[in-house]
Amino acid sequence: MRFVATLLLWLVTTVAVAVAVPVCWAQHTIVDRGGYVALATTAAKNPELQKAAASELGIQINKLATSAGYDLSTSTMSNAAGIYTSSSEFPDQFGTANGLAHDWLFTDTMAHSDASGRWTIDLSPMLSDRSFKATLSVLGVRVPSKIEVPLTDSAQSLRPGQFRAATTWGPWARVGICVLTGLFALLTLAMARSRGKTLAALGISTMIVGAAGWAGIEVGRRYINDGLNRATGNVRQVADIMVDQAIANAHQWLNITLAVGGGLVVAGVLVTLLGSLGRRVVRKPAATPAT
Question: Mind listing the pLDDT tens digit for each residue in 186-232?
Fold first, then answer.
């Protein structure tokens, strides 16, 4: 009966670990604004993303310049934007822009709509960077005080604050699942006859979760690519690099999970060996005195 209870608790703990790892990663990297901005800032250091961003900025700013009466080619604007995106200021500014988009999606503080009813976001804080202004001023272009860019093709596809519940309950979910995971692990050890072997078993289950996470990402990437196929051109390239950065970050978490599992296995083996050695010392018969 005790073995069955231990096995059941081990299975529950394994499931809890399998839930805790992705929940904690998502909360830290996606739901948390600081984590998402850090992810975007790191991705912005990729030269391919910088090139795609420069091309897209050149297209958008050329539209603004043309509407304001300037006669400049898109390639000229893209080259000017390339100077900005390759500078040391760009990663932080790109992170700021993604922070604004995060605010739009996870809160409603950035809610605006255009005449067509499409939700928009004001990107003027990003373009107010001094180095970018200086680059454009050489070409005689002045950045407007407000630049509203549509985030959706229609008002129904996305809405401001759509994932506000994740911001509200995400931290509580992370704390709750971590506490439950630790509690079930302790109960498993308390119920087990051999704590060393059980500790090693918990390590094995943790390693299984880490390996399953790697496999799950590879399978899920196909579905992510299907979603990214709806985007084209520079936007698709930027999105690809952002996804690659998120996957690389998730791999780091899974590697840590594998390392923790391996550490538990080693600790369990050591505890088992020390326990076995201790029992041998206790059972060793006392030497018979010589007559």
Answer: 999 999 888 889 999 999 999 999 999 999 999 988 888 887 777 67
Number of domains, the chain:
2
Rounded CA separation 43/49 (Å):
7
Please tell me the distance from the alpha carbon of residue 101 to that of residue 107, in angstroms, as a whole number.
Answer: 10
Residue position matching structure tokens 């060393």: 196
Same domain, 59 and 138: yes
CA distances from 152 to 114, 116, 149, 199 (A): 11, 11, 9, 50
What domain range is 12 assigned to?
2-31+165-275
> Is the predicted pLDDT of residue 64 greater than 80, yes or no?
no
Please tell me the distance from the alpha carbon of residue 267 to that of residue 55, in angstroms, as a whole number. 53
Burial class (CB in 10 A: 0-12, 13-18, 19+), 31: buried
Backbone φ and ψ of 26, nearest 5°: -65, -40
How far does CA 113 lie from the centroid of its chain?
A: 28
- CA-CA distance, 178 to 125, in Å (whole number)? 38
Rounded to whole angstroms, how far apart are CA atoms 150 and 128? 19
Sheet with 119-122: list strands edge to edge.
112-113, 119-122, 148-150
DSSP letter for each residue of 22-46: HHHHHIIIIISHHHHHHHHHHHTTS
